[in-house]
Design goal:
One of its GO terms (molecular function) is antiporter activity. It is a multi-pass membrane protein. This is Multicomponent Na+:H+ antiporter subunit A. This protein is an all-alpha fold. It contains 35 helices and two strands. The protein has a two-stranded antiparallel ribbon. A hairpin with a 4-residue loop joins strand 1 and strand 2. The radius of gyration is 36 Å and the shape is elongated. The protein starts with a helix and ends in an 18-residue tail after the last helix. The relative contact order is 0.06.
Length: 806
C-alpha cells in the first residue's frame, strides 16, 4: 500500500472539519440538497477506510506519523488496526446516513447549515479519537467531542432545558477529560512514550508499577464519564434535548462509545488484573440493569432509547471487564449490532415525532398503515435488538452467554445479570416496535404520513445491514470479529459463528429464556412503569438532583469567594500582594536554609564583614541620595500633590541608576513610566482635592510600614545571597551567542523582549492597552454624564399686566 495512501489517514479526521466550515455556505446555495452534498464527505471517508480492510484482515496494521512538536518528540500519529477500523467505519458509515437524515429533518430551518457544520465537526472529532495513536492526540480529539456535543445538545439555545443539558454534558465529560490527561501523563512517565501502539507492549511494566492503581483510576474516570457508567450516567438522558439526528449519532457511534473504545484499547496494557475485572464487571452490570429499568419507566421514545443506550454501554463495559476471548468477541459484535439498531431506532423516533407530532408511546398507535416504510425500519432494528436468529444481535448475545459456561458462582451471577438485562432490552424493543405502529389508530397532533426519503434511508439500510450481517456469519466472524477482538486482546482470536441451532445446547435455551422474559416484560410494561415511578417518587431524589445541588452550591461558593477576594478595597489588595511577596521571599529561604549565610563562620567571620561596599563615584552617590530623598519626601508629604511629585522624583532617580549602570533602554522605559504615572495620577486626582493630606490611622501606618520593611529586607537578603553565590551564566551566554545569528539583533535586551519573550511582551502590551481603554471609557462616560446633565432651570420672567388706558 502506497505511503501517500497511508498518509491520508490524518486527512480522514481533518476532512470533516473542513466540510464543517463550508457547510453553512453550501446550505445557503444548495438549500434542500445540502444534506446530500455534505454526505459525500463521510461517504468518501468510509470508502477510503474500507480500502484498509484487506490489510487489516490479514493481521497487519497501518500507521501514519506527522511531526507535531518535534523538539519534545510529540507527533500527531495515527494507527489503523482491527479495533480502530471497525469504529471508524461505523462512525463514517452511520455518519453518512445521519447527515442525509439531518438534511431532511431540519429542512427549512434557518440554522440548518450551522447544524450540519456542528455534526460534521462532531464526526471529525470522533474519527480523530479512534484513529489517533498518540495519547496527546487522543486527548485533543477527546475534548473536541465534548465541545462539539455541547454545541449540538444546546443547538436550540432558546430552551432552558437544552442549555442545561448541554452544560451538564460538558461539565461531566470535561471532568473525564482531565482524568484522561492525567492518565496519559502518568503513562508517559512510566513508559517513556506517548504512542499507544508502543504502550500496549509494556503491559507488564505498567501493571507491575506501584502507580498502576492511580493510572487505572484516571483512565476509568475518563471512560466512565464519557460512556455514562453508573453513577455518572445521568447526563446522557438530558442530552436528548438535542435534535434527533444528534441523538441518533451520539448514542450509536460517537461520543458515548469513546469510553468503551478507550477501555478496549487499554486492555492489553492495563487489563487482566483483579481490580480491572471486578471494577468493570460490577459497574458495567449495575449500569446494564439500571439503564434497562430506566427505559421501562419512560414513555417518550427518545428517553426510552437513551436509557437503553446506558444499558448497552454497561453491557459493553462488562464484557471488556470479563476479558475472555468469547467476551471480547461478543463486545465487538455487539458494538456493531448496537450501532446499527440504535441509530435506526432513533431515526424512527425522529420520523414519528416529525410526521405525527409526538413521541409519547401512550399517545401513538396504528402508524403502520400511514408510515409503512418507517415501520419496516423499526421492525428490522428491533429484531436485532431482541437478538433473534438471522440478525447480528443474535450472535452478540450468543457469544456473551458462551463465555460464561464455566459453572463457577461468579459466572452464574454474571449470567443472571446478562439474561435479566437482555430480557428487559428485548421487552423495550417490543414496546418500540409494537406500541406506535400496531393496534388501533389514535389521534395525533399532526396527521401522520410517511417521512421523506432522506429520513427513511437510514432506518432501512441500517436495519437491513443488521439482517445481512446476521445471515453471513462467516463474513461477520472473519472480517469483523477476528480483526477487532485480536486488536483488543493482542493475540489471534478464532471465530466460531454459525447459523446451526443445537436444540440440546444450554446456550439456545438461555436465549429462549431471554426472549420469553422479554415478552413477559412487554406484557407487564405498564405495571412495571407504575412501580418504578412510585419508587422514584418515594426516593425523592436522583443523581440529576444531586448534580443540580452541587452546581448550585459551587456557584454560591464561587460568589462568596469572589465577594471575599474582590471586595473593591484597593488598600486591602495591596496589603495581600505585599504580604504574599514577603512570604515568597522568606519562605524558601527558611525552608531550604538560605538564611544560613547570615551565621558567622571561622573562615568568613560575621555577615557584616562579608558585605563589600561598592566604590561609587560622587555623582553616583548623589543619585542614590536623590532616590532616598524622593522616598522620604513621599512619606512626609503634607498634601496629595506633593506626594505625587515626590514619587516622580524617586522614580526618576531609579531611571538615572539604570542609565549610570549601562542600561539606557531600561532607563528610558522607567522614565516614560514615571512621566505617565505622574501625569495620569495628577489627571485623576483633579477630581479630588490635591491640597489635602490623607489621614492614616496609626494601625494602618504600622501595618504598611512593617510590610514595607519586611519586603525590603527580603529583597536585600535575596540579592546578597545571589551575589555571594556562583553566577550561572548559561542563559546569558545563550542569549549572547544566539542574539545576532537567530534573532538578527545586537541589543540583547530588545531581542529578549521581542523574540525570546515575544508572547510575554505581547501579553503585557495587551494588558496596558486594555487598562488604557478602560480608563478612556470611564472618562468618556463621565464626560457624557456631565454634558447630558440637565441645566438648572432659569426663573421665568413674569410680565406685569399693563394698566388699562384711562
Amino acid at each position: 500500500m502506497g505511503s501517500s495512501f497511508e498518509a491520508g489517514i490524518g486527512l480522514a479526521a481533518v476532512a470533516p472539519f473542513v466540510a464543517a466550515i463550508l457547510a453553512p455556505y453550501i446550505q445557503r446555495f444548495a438549500g434542500a440538497f445540502a444534506g446530500w452534498i455534505l454526505a459525500i464527505i463521510p461517504a468518501s471517508i468510509f470508502i477510503y477506510l474500507l480500502g484498509f480492510a484487506d490489510t487489516i484482515i490479514h493481521g497487519e496494521t497501518v500507521s501514519s506519523v506527522i511531526e507535531w512538536i518535534p523538539a519534545y518528540g510529540i507527533n500527531l500519529s495515527f494507527l489503523v488496526d482491527g479495533l480502530s477500523l471497525i469504529f471508524a467505519l461505523t462512525i463514517s458509515g452511520v455518519g453518512t446516513l445521519i447527515i442525509l437524515y439531518a438534511g431532511g429533518y431540519l429542512a427549512g430551518h434557518h440554522h440548518q447549515g450551522r447544524f450540519l457544520g456542528y455534526m460534521l465537526a462532531f464526526m471529525g472529532a470522533m474519527l480523530g479519537l479512534v484513529l489517533a495513536d498518540s495519547l496527546l492526540a487522543l486527548f485533543l480529539f477527546w475534548e473536541l467531542t465534548s465541545v462539539t456535543s455541547f454545541l449540538l445538545i444546546g443547538f436550540d439555545h432558546s430552551r432552558q432545558a437544552a442549555r442545561r443539558g448541554a452544560i451538564q454534558a460538558l461539565v461531566i465529560t470535561n471532568i473525564g477529560g482531565m482524568f484522561l490527561l492525567a492518565g496519559a501523563i502518568l503513562v508517559y512517565q512510566l513508559a517513556g512514550t506517548w504512542e499507544m501502539s508502543a504502550v500496549r507492549e509494556m503491559g507488564e511494566v505498567l501493571r507491575g508499577n506501584e502507580l498502576y492503581l492511580l493510572v487505572l483510576i484516571c483512565f476509568l474516570g475518563a471512560a466512565f464519564t464519557k460512556s455514562a457508567q453508573f453513577p455518572l450516567h445521568f447526563w446522557l438522558p438530558n442530552a436528548m434535548e438535542a435534535p434527533t439526528p444528534v441523538s441518533a449519532f451520539l448514542h450509536s457511534a460517537t461520543m458515548v462509545q469513546a469510553g468503551v473504545y478507550l477501555l478496549a484499547r487499554l486492555t492489553p496494557s492495563l487489563g487482566g488484573t483483579d481490580v480491572w475485572t471486578s471494577t468493570l464487571v460490577i459497574f458495567g452490570g449495575i449500569t446494564l440493569i439500571w439503564g434497562s429499568l430506566g427505559a421501562l419507566k419512560q414513555t417518550d421514545l427518545k428517553q426510552i432509547l437513551a436509557q437503553t443506550t446506558i444499558a448497552s454501554l454497561g453491557l459493553l463495559v462488562l464484557l471488556i471487564g470479563l476479558g475472555s476471548d468469547y467476551a471480547i468477541s461478543a463486545m465487538v459484535v455487539y458494538f456493531v449490532a448496537h450501532a446499527f439498531y440504535k441509530a435506526g431506532l432513533f431515526m424512527v423516533a425522529g420520523a414519528i415525532d416529525h410526521e405525527a407530532g409526538t413521541r409519547e408511546i401512550t399517545a401513538l398507535g396504528g402508524l403502520a398503515e400511514k408510515m409503512p416504510v418507517t415501520f419496516i425500519g423499526a421492525a428490522l432494528a428491533s429484531l436485532s435488538m431482541i437478538g433473534l436468529p438471522l440478525t447480528i444481535g443474535y450472535f452478540a448475545k450468543e457469544e456473551m452467554y458462551l463465555g460464561l459456561m464455566s459453572g463457577e458462582w461468579t459466572a452464574i451471577l454474571v449470567m443472571i445479570v446478562l439474561v435479566a438485562g437482555n430480557a428487559m432490552l428485548a421487552g423495550v424493543a417490543l414496546l418500540v416496535m409494537i406500541r406506535p405502529f400496531l393496534g388501533e389508530a389514535v389521534g395525533t397532533p399532526k396527521k401522520p404520513h410517511e417521512a421523506p426519503i432522506a429520513m427513511l434511508a437510514g432506518p432501512i439500510l441500517l436495519g437491513a445491514g443488521g439482517i445481512i450481517a446476521g445471515i453471513l456469519p462467516d463474513w461477520l466472524g472473519h472480517d469483523v470479529l477476528v480483526p477487532g477482538a485480536s486488536a483488543i486482546l493482542g493475540r489471534a482470536v478464532k471465530s466460531h459463528l454459525t447459523l446451526a441451532l443445537d436444540f440440546t445446547s444450554l446456550l439456545l435455551w438461555l436465549s429462549a429464556l431471554t426472549w420469553l422474559l422479554g415478552v413477559l416484560v412487554y406484557r407487564q410494561a405498564d405495571t412495571i412503569r407504575t412501580v418504578l415511578r412510585r419508587f422514584d417518587k418515594a426516593l425523592g431524589w436522583t443523581a440529576d438532583t444531586v448534580f443540580d445541588i452541587v452546581m448550585f452550591s459551587l456557584i454560591r461558593f464561587s460568589g462568596a469567594v469572589t465577594r471575599f477576594l474582590h471586595h473593591g478595597q484597593l488598600e486591602f489588595y495591596l496589603v495581600i500582594v505585599f504580604a504574599a511577596l514577603a512570604a515568597a521571599l522568606f519562605g524558601p529561604m527558611l525552608v531550604w536554609g538560605g538564611l544560613d549565610w547570615l551565621e558567622p563562620t571561622a573562615e568568613l567571620g560575621d555577615w557584616s564583614q562579608r558585605l563589600i561596599m561598592p566604590a561609587l563615584a560622587p555623582y553616583e552617590w548623589g543619585v542614590l541620595a536623590l532616590a532616598v530623598f524622593g522616598l522620604i519626601a513621599v512619606l512626609i508629604a503634607q498634601s496629595r500633590l506633593v506626594a505625587i511629585l515626590s514619587l516622580g522624583v524617586q522614580g526618576t532617580a531609579v531611571a538615572l541608576i539604570f542609565l549610570l549602570f549601562g542600561a539606557p533602554d531600561l532607563a528610558f522605559t522607567q522614565l516614560m513610566v514615571e512621566i505617565l504615572s505622574v501625569v495620569i495620577l495628577t489627571f485623576v486626582m483633579t477630581r479630588l482635592r490635591l491640597d489635602q493630606r490623607d489621614h492614616r490611622p496609626f494601625e494602618d501606618w504600622a501595618r504598611d510600614g512593617t510590610l514595607a520593611i519586611v519586603c525590603g529586607l527580603g529583597v536585600s537578603l535575596l540579592l546578597m545571597l545571589v551575589l555571594n553565590g556562583t553566577l550561572d551564566t548559561r542563559l546569558s551566554d545563550f542569549f549572547t551567542a544566539t542574539s545576532v545569528p537567530i534573532a538578527h539583533g545586537h541589543n540583547i535586551v530588545n531581542v529578549i523582549l521581542v523574540d525570546y519573550r515575544g508572547f510575554d511582551t505581547l501579553g503585557e502590551i495587551a494588558v496596558v492597552m486594555g487598562a488604557g481603554m478602560a480608563v478612556l471609557a470611564l472618562l468618556r462616560r463621565q464626560q457624557r454624564r456631565v454634558s447630558t446633565s440637565p441645566e438648572p432651570a432659569k426663573p421665568k420672567r413674569v410680565r406685569k399686566p399693563r394698566k388699562a388706558a384711562s
